[in-house]
Amino acid sequence: MTLTSLTIQELRKKLDTKEVSATEVTKAFLERIKKLDPTIRSYVTIIEVEALVQAKKAEESIVKGTATSVLAGIPWAVKDNLCTQGVRTTCSSKILENYTATYNATVVEKLAQAGAIPLGKANLDEFAMGSSTENSALMTTRNPWDTTRVPGGSSGGSAAAVAADMCAFALGSDTGGSIRQPASFCGIVGLKPTYGRVSRYGLVAFASSLDQVGPLTKTVYDAALVLNHISGHDKRDSTSVDKPVPDYTKALNKNVKGLRIAVPRELMGEGIDPEIKKIVLEALKVYEKEGATFKEVDMPSFKYALSAYYLIAPAEASANLGRYDGVRYGHRTKNPADLISMFSKTRSEGFGDEVKRRIMIGTYALSAGYYDAYYLKAQKVRTLIKEDFDRVFKDHDVVITPTSPTVAFKVGEKTDDPLSMYLSDIATIPINLAALPGISIPCGFSKGLPVGLQIIARHFDEEKLLQTAYAYEQVTEWHKKRPAL
Amino acid sequence: MSISEKDVEHVARLARLEVTADEKKKFTKQLSNILEYAAQLNELDTSKTQPTAHAVPMSNVFREDIVNAWPDKEGLLKQAPDRNGDFFVVPKILE
Predict the structure, then answer these.
(1) CA–CA separation, A377 and A373 (whole Å)
(2) Domain segments of chain A: what residues?
(3) Residue ranges in chain B assigned as alpha helix (H)
(4) Contact map slice: B 10-29 vs A, CB within 8 A
(5) Closest-CA residue in chain B for A100?
(6) Which residue does chain A place closest to B24, by CA atoms?
(7) What was the ipTM of the complex prediction?
(8) Out of 3.30.420.10, 3.60.40.10, 3.90.1300.10, 3.20.20.70, which CATH number does the structure's domain A1-485 have?
(9) What are B39-75's pLDDT values in tens digits?
C-alpha cells in the first residue's frame, strides 16, 4: 500500500512505530502532487520548502517523544480562502491573486500547533461562490474519478486533493454545501460542523451567518480526528460558541439499534436523479439491517430554502466583499481618474461574473424599498426551516438525504445558466440556514461516479452525526475505493 | 419580480461595480431569472413569523476596551498598492 493512500489513522501508526519518517511521508505527497496535479489542478500554491521544514520539526518531536498530537507529521491541503501567514491567499480571485496573508486563520494555527504539515493552498470557486469550482479565476480543477467532470464546489480543490491522495486530509469551508457536495462528487467524507463549533477567524468571509470551516477526509474516523483539533471557542470570532470540545473519536461505534432516521420527502422526489434515490434507499436498508428505523417526513419549508439562501447569502456577501476596494491590499486599477472610479474599476477588473452577480443580487435585496420583500422575507423563511427541523428532531435522531441531486456533471455543463448551477445545492442549503451539522459519506456509484449520503444531526450533536456515519461506513466498502490515476 | 436594466445600473453603482453594455444585458437577464425564482417565497404566509438572523442562539459578545497592538504593522502597510509612510495613498477625495 502506498503511503499516500493511507488514512490519518494508518499514517499515525507508521510514524509512531518509526516505520516511516514525517519527511518521507511529506516527500511522498509532494511527489504525487508533482505527478498528478498538472492534470487534476487542485493546488493554487504548493508550499514545498516550508512543508519539508515543518516535516523535519515534526520528525524531531516524534523521535524525542514530545509530539503530543495525533496529527503530528500529517500533510494536509488548505482551502485558499483560509489565511496562511506569509503564503499567498487568493480566494481563487484576481482581486487577491498576489495577496499574501499577514496572519494565520485560527484553524491553520491550531493544526500548525498540532504539527500537521500544510502542503499547499487548494483551489475553490472564487470567494467560495459556486458549486463546481469552475468559478475559480485561476484554474479549473478536475474530478479525479473522471477528469472531464467537475469535482464539485466550492471546496473542489480540497476534495479532489483528498480523493487523488495528494494529501492526507484537507480543510474546506461550507456556506451552502461547499464541503459536502464536493465530498459527494469525489467519493470522500466531508463534514460541516454546527455553526459556531469552529472559529471563522481568518476564513475570508462570504456569508457570515452561514460560513463554517470543516474537514474533508478519507474516513469518518479521520474527520472526527480533525474536528477534535479545529473545534473550540475563539475570542477572535464572536460567533464561535463557548462549549467544551469532546473527543469525537470516542463517539464512534457501530451500534445504531433504535436509531430513528427521518427522510424528507422533498429530497427524495423529482429533482433527484432516480439512480441516486435508489442508492440512498439501499443505504437506508443497510441502516435498517443494523437495527435502525427510517421514516419519510414532510419538510415543506425545503421547497423555499434555495430561494431564501440566494437572497440571504448574496446579501451578506455584498457587505463582506465591500472591503475589496483597492485601498489597502489586493488589486488596484491602474491610473484611476478619481476615487469612485478607482473603486469601480478595481472591483470590476478583480471580480469574476458569479461574484458580481451575487454582489448585485445582495445589494438589490438589501436596498431601500426592497429590504422587506426580499431579505426580511428570506430571514422569516429561515425561521420556518429551523422550525421544520425542530419538529422532526422531536422524535427522530438524525435526518438522512442524498447529498446532491446528481453525480458530478461535465465541465462546462452548467456554466451558461446560473440557476441550474444553484440547484446542485438543494439538499445541502437547508442545513446551513438552520446552522445544523451535516456530513456527506460515500454510499455507492452511479455510472462509475461517486454518490454521497448526507446525514444531519441536532445542533452540537456531532457525536451522533459521526457515529451514525461511522456505523454505515464500517459495514460497507465504499470508502476503500480510489479513482484509477 | 423582474429587474430592469435601469435597476441593474442602479445596483451596480451602489455596489461600486462597472458593467459594460453587454454585461448589463446579460446580468439583467440572469438576475431577473434568479429573482423570479426567488419570488416563490411570496407563496408563504410569514405574517406571524419572526426573522432568524442566527439559527444558533447568540447574544452580544463584549470585551474590555483595551488596545491590543497588532504585532506586524509594517507587514500590513507593505501590502498597500500605494503607500506613504503610515498612510495609504488614494486619488483625491475632495475637490
Answers:
(1) 6
(2) 1-485
(3) 5-14, 21-38, 73-77
(4) 10-12, 14-19, 27
(5) B79
(6) A357
(7) 0.94
(8) 3.90.1300.10
(9) 899 999 999 999 987 777 777 889 899 999 999 999 9
